[in-house]
Specification:
This protein has twelve helices and ten strands. The strands form two sheets. It has a seven-stranded mixed β-sheet, sandwiched between helices. It has a three-stranded antiparallel β-sheet with strand order 8-9-10. The protein starts with 12 loop residues before the first helix and ends with a helix. The site of pyridoxal-5'-phosphate has 15 residues, from α3 and α10. Pyridoxal-5'-phosphate binds next to α3 and α10.
């Protein structure tokens, strides 16, 4: 039983079909000018248009990448280097994914940028006032995620975007945990750059995209051929890109109904655990997505809990997947509770997806209660 959809999702059957068909029937290099190249190029542009239509942006504003880590790196390093003549100050939050935190650290260490990390409260939230007072005359870039991958908090991206645009500051959002799961419209969100990855919404791993609002000044990361309007060199991974556009079209058309199911799952888990007198608390704010539930359990270590669930073939997570292999405390919970809080070692993240059934949720509840008792 899989409850780790925030780490990755199974590939949808329709997506596998599209990938297989593209691998078999559309092997051309999209940059070749002969008929096979033109066929590949037309499929590539069709995929771009599908994604752009869903995001309500121009197709030329979508650049295909290999994953959201690449999209985030390109967005941050690319805009920072290209705009450094206007200032070298960047603002982000202390609860971003490492694929944002590590590139800004790199910019600080190698290029002398100054980084302000907005602190968060016990619910993982920060105030707009805090952001406003962090803005300086040399602030060129702000990166704030749309949905937190560990606690599910939703951050007020559209409002932040309004503030930043008044100040002529470039705004990037890591929308990995939102794309395909809620309305994500870059123009309404007032963002200049937005990152996404296919494997969080039913597509394959190893493909993603970066929305770059037209006229945003950004340096390329990969240099070589003229692909992606010279913004990202390298032959595009057409089968996976076609698969990603299919996955997005499917998940985008069904998320509202899915949310209703996830909300019920969440409520059921909380109700049943409370009825069984289990000592637990929720990590995160009330403004959170219905598909992520991060729980803290008093008096049990998360590794032991996860292992006991794993023995029953129940997959949950502790913190973000990228650091889960090496068990280190979550930097998100550390930002919320402080480095020495006991709460850093007693949490698990349960996340739902299309394939999650209510029977599975009941089995998870029963096993959690059994372990806790
Ligand atoms: N950003 C967030 C919020 C994520 O949850 C993840 C993956 O866990 C990433 C970025 C990185 O995505 P990818 O695996 O495509 O590099």
């Amino acid at each position: 039983m899989y409850f780790d959809y925030a780490a990755t999702t199974p590939v949808l059957p329709e997506v596998i079909e599209v990938i297989n068909a593209t691998l078999s029937n559309n092997f051309g290099n999209a940059s070749s000018s002969h008929y096979q190249g033109r066929k590949a190029s037309s499929r590539l542009e069709k995929s771009r248009e599908t994604i752009a239509a869903i995001l309500e942006v121009d197709a030329n504003e979508i650049v295909f990448t290999s994953c959201a880590t690449e999209s985030n790196n390109m967005a941050l390093i690319g805009t920072a280097l290209s705009n450094q003549h206007n200032g070298k100050h960047i603002i982000t939050t202390s609860v971003e994914h490492h694929s944002v935190l590590h590139p800004v650290k790199y910019l600080e260490e190698k290029f002398g940028f100054e980084i302000t990390y907005l602190p968060v409260d016990e619910n993982g939230m920060f105030s707009l006032e805090m952001l406003k007072s962090a803005i300086r005359s040399d602030t060129i870039l702000v990166s704030i995620m749309m949905v937190n991958n560990e606690i599910g908090n939703i951050y007020p991206i559209a409002e932040i975007g309004k503030i930043l645009h008044k100040n002529n500051i470039i705004f990037h959002t890591d929308a990995v945990q939102a794309v395909g799961k809620m309305a994500v419209l870059p123009q309404e969100l007032n963002v200049d750059l937005l990152s996404a990855t296919a494997h969080k919404f039913g597509g394959p791993k190893g493909v993603g995209f970066l929305y770059i609002k037209s006229k945003t000044s950004i340096d390329s990361f990969l240099h070589g051929g003229d692909q992606e309007l010279k913004r990202r060199a390298g032959t595009e991974n057409l089968p996976y890109i076609a698969g990603m556009s299919t996955a997005l079209a499917i998940s985008n058309s069904s998320y509202l109904a899915e949310h209703r199911r996830y909300k019920k799952f969440k409520e059921r888990i909380l109700k049943k655990l409370a009825e069984a007198n289990i000592d637990f608390y929720i990590n995160g704010a009330s403004l959170a997505v219905p598909y992520v539930l991060n729980l803290g359990f008093l008096n049990i270590k998360q590794d032991l809990l996860m292992m006991k669930l794993d023995l029953k073939q129940i997959a949950v997570s502790t913190g973000s997947a990228c650091t889960a292999g090496a068990i280190e405390p979550s930097h998100v919970l550390a930002a919320m509770y402080g480095n020495s809080s006991k709460k850093l070692s007693e949490n698990i993240r349960i996340s739902f997806g299309k394939e999650t059934s209510s029977d599975e949720v009941d089995a998870l509840i029963a096993e959690l209660i059994k372990i806790m008792k």
